[in-house]
Amino acid sequence: MIIPDYKNKKTRYLVLLINFVGAIFFFWIRKKKIDSDLIRKILIVKLDRIGDTFLATPTVEATRRQFPSAKIIFLAAPWNKEVLENNPNIDELVIFEKALNVHRAGFFSIINHLKKAKQLAKVIKEISPDIVIDLEGHPLNVLAMFKARVPIRVGFGDKVLSFLLTNKTKKDKSIHQSDIYFRIAKILGYKSERPEEKIFIGGKEKEEINKFMENNNLKNFIVIHLGAGRNYRQWPLNNFIDLANLIMKNYPELKLIIIGGNEDRKLAEQFINGIQNKDRVISVIGKLNIPETYQLLSFAKLFIGSESAPMHLAGAQNIPTIAFMSQWSGIERWKPLGEKVYVFKSKNIHKCPGIKCKLIPCPNMAAISVSEVYNFIKDKELFK
Question: What domains are defined for the chain?
């Protein structure tokens, strides 16, 4: 599996070269005027990760406000659909079942699966929108938009194949990712402030979480998410265990809930084996959907986790959120938003290659000590 490092100069120069040559051959593609009164159907494409999709929800809401009479259809993947299922700003949620899994598919594997672009183009053509928005910044989406012959194609101008777009904006990586997505709303004509990130909770999810809290007598609890998906942003499991034991020893009224998907099951089992007060630990690994997780987090006294989707869900609800982040990621761009977010940055112990880091654990993340985190929690009195 080859995953591109877009921070690599050679990768950036290659993208510039492809786009330059493409712009010459497709010189006839011109920027289109977007008249909100004439737009009847809008398709938003984002076959992306859960956290990225969550950060894009303000742009979805802004699009709804800008085009109040248009039908807004969102094309999602099986893994991110739950972020959007109850969203009132979306008229129809369409699931592209054949989407390439963004957690596993790198750039070059996508090149080898161009048939997916053909399948995606067919779906887009059947929907027949006036505007299609690539809110992901993915060349596969852009190619499909072009093949579907949608008249107005909106996306990001700094990714490969962006010369096929009619209206585009650049990703300013000095700003937060949510604001990067929001630039799309601005080129659509939206002029007000950015809405907040949110997941809309249905009655069923509220009922399930209320029942779960009642059955487990949950009043004071913290939530921990152990996984991070990649080595370079993973705080070591032993550190999580030591921190949890310190917290539970000194705050006997607290219970601890472990959240995550099935991919976190092994980590959770190892974590529980290392915990001294196992009777106060509840694992909901693989048991809660995204809206239920979001609802549960709103009642927590504290969230602790590495860089991942749950840290964004927690931070947005203004519960105290401790996030362990790698400086390679770009912390100002990817940190969770919220008034009670506390980021612990990786150290500069070794020159980390980021997504290509093979060290387990990454020395930069391991250098964030348990004592500094626990002392911070105690000094800030985060459980009050």
Answer: 9-187 (3.40.50.2000), 203-380 (3.40.50.2000)
